[in-house]
Amino acid sequence: MDQDLARPREFDEGVALEAAMQRFWADGYASTSVRDLGDAMGLGQASVYNAFGDKRTLFTQCLDRYLDANMRSRIARVESTLPPRQAIEAFLSEIVERSMESRLGCLLANAALEVAPHDTDIADVVAERMAELESFFRRCVIAGRKDGSISPDADPADAAQLFLTTVMGLRVLARGYPKRAVLEGAVRQALSVLGKPRRKPNPSTRT
Amino acid sequence: MDQDLARPREFDEGVALEAAMQRFWADGYASTSVRDLGDAMGLGQASVYNAFGDKRTLFTQCLDRYLDANMRSRIARVESTLPPRQAIEAFLSEIVERSMESRLGCLLANAALEVAPHDTDIADVVAERMAELESFFRRCVIAGRKDGSISPDADPADAAQLFLTTVMGLRVLARGYPKRAVLEGAVRQALSVLGKPRRKPNPSTRT
DNA sequence: GATGTTTTATAGCGTCCGCTTCAATACAAC
DNA sequence: GTTGTATTGAAGCGGACGCTATAAAACATC
Q1: Chain B: closest CA distance from residue A183 (Å)
Q2: Among A144, B11, B39, B173, who pairs with B177 as Cys (CB 3.0-4.6 Å)?
């Protein structure tokens, strides 16, 4: 591709991708033109196509970037620093906070509704990542039942599916019904399915 | 407008609106052109503009039609024919069934994500209807607590907010992660917040 | 049948779309 | 400094966009 014997890029790929992602996130796939993206990135169209391929390819890169920065890294952070029940609580609470801050919702949810039905490749990515989120919740519920912070009455599969659904629902409300009390009430009630802990979570269970 | 002294319409407005609604529902606002809508309705562009105004106005009419046919009428039906707890259960179960049948999701949710952020009028409609759905659930929870079918431990406001969030989440999953087991698990877990009934619901409580 | 009004089909307006071409440019290698 | 390659800005491709202007067509009224 670039074989170090030529004119170097005048921009940082990461910064540019971030700017493009923000535009897709705010305006959606169809409503964002390649000219818009170029403006946001500070690039001409030729540079956009040269560096990132066509519009669809650029979108997949933005989606990947979004998911790494806003989902996987968050999962990894809460799962590695908090006991399981608190990991779930923190994850959902953060979504409420972010939703009230920006009202952008979630690029994954936006992509699921707007793009996935007409693009099987993106549909596959969307489904994979939702499965990833679901299994994060399921791991937490299982671990929480083991350490006593989550009631053994809670079914890990069902609870994980409810949390996944709740996350997506919150993101829709963020754009269409952005009332803090509603989001907080939904999260409070969703978390209630975890029941009362048998004993305090043991911090040494996880590092 | 039409003062009965002229050439009559060659089409049925309701049928045409229904066809347009289906297109918006399937493809989204931005990705559906007025030519597409005309084709789906069997009309030329001139007729579309003459009968329904511009694209945005047509969309609002489609959204209204969708909400009347797919939300309000459903609320009215389950609320008038079922006791409160079963009304909630039926409403959510129907959404799962519809989601597995068509995978179109919900035009209200689609509009909330794609259109509402850039159109305050539509944002108002979206928020109103979500509030309507929320209060339907709240009414049911309150009535169910009264007739004993729903545990008094369930907070009506929180539960209604969770159900609203769940509905929107289910619609996202319908498009992005359409697995029956996931939707059913989420609904099962959401319904669990209603607790065990103190006594069987009394069918004579409602007509 | 003549008149008046609305709907219809056709054509076209200006604009923006995704994407490409192309020459000028900037750098590494030698 | 020359050469070779990748990047850049400018211009433009064909086509689709939302919307409208126009005139023929279809009916109720008289």
Answers
A1: 7
A2: B173
pLDDT < 70: residue spans in chain A: 1-4, 199-207
Question: Which residue has the least CA–C1' distance to nucleotide D18?
Answer: B34
- For strand C, give the nucleotides within 7 A of a protein CB: 4-12, 16-22, 25-29
**CATH number of the domain bearing residue B192:** 1.10.357.10
- The boundaries of the domain holding residue A84 are 63-198
- The proportion of chain B whose per-residue pLDDT surpasses 70, expressed as a percent, equals 93
Closest by CA to B64, choosing from B32, B15, B21, is B21
Residue B3 CA to residue A186 CA, distance in Å, equals 51
Look at A188 and B158 and tell me if their CB atoms are within 8 Å. Answer: yes
Identify all chain B residues contacting A173, using CB atoms and an 8 Å cutoff: 112, 130, 164-165, 168
Give Cα separations from B165 to A133, B109, B131, B197 (angstroms).
17, 11, 11, 23
> Hey, how many other C-beta atoms are within 10 angstroms of the C-beta on A68?
10
Residue A176 within a domain: yes
- The residue to which tokens 């489904």 are assigned: A127
Q: Chain-centre distance of CA A59, in angstroms?
A: 15
Residue (of B183, B125, B77) closest to A169 by Cα position: B183
Interface touch B134/A171, C-beta < 8 Å:
no
In a domain, B79, yes or no: yes
Query: H helices within B53-196, ranges in order?
Result: 55-67, 73-81, 84-102, 107-114, 120-147, 156-176, 180-191
Answer yes or no: is A42 within a domain.
Answer: no
Distance measured from the CA of protein residue B145 to the C1' of nucleotide D13, in angstroms: 68
**How far are the Cα atoms of A68, A79, A95 from residue A132, in angstroms, in the given order?**
12, 13, 17
- Mean of the pLDDT values across residues B113-119? 97
What spatial distance separates the first Cα and last Cα of chain A, rounded to whole Å? 42
Specify if B41 maps to a domain.
no
- Our count of domains for chain B comes to 1
